[in-house]
Fold this protein.
Amino acid sequence: MFGFRFHTRVRHPLARLLALVVGAAVLLVVLAFGFFAAVALAIGGAIVVLFNALRTPQQRPAHGAPATQAPAGVIEGEFKVVRDPSPHS
């Protein structure tokens, strides 16, 4: 129906070779950037893991640990009562 083309294909062999070389160079730059970004994230993650491993136990925050132990046979936990807003008759 519509015969619109975004661009026409270059027929000259040197222009096609130049486009191939430029495209390959751009692709390599993008891949190198991604590689170095991944390396930086891996190094940053390793530093965080080592920092957390080397901290003393007094410096580590408590993760909601209970102050006292529950008696035997008691399961500790929290709950919320959810009521049905429309009563069943």
Q: What stands out?
A: The mean pLDDT is 82. The two ends are 65 Å apart (CA to CA). The helical segments are 13-54. DSSP finds one helix and no strands in the chain.
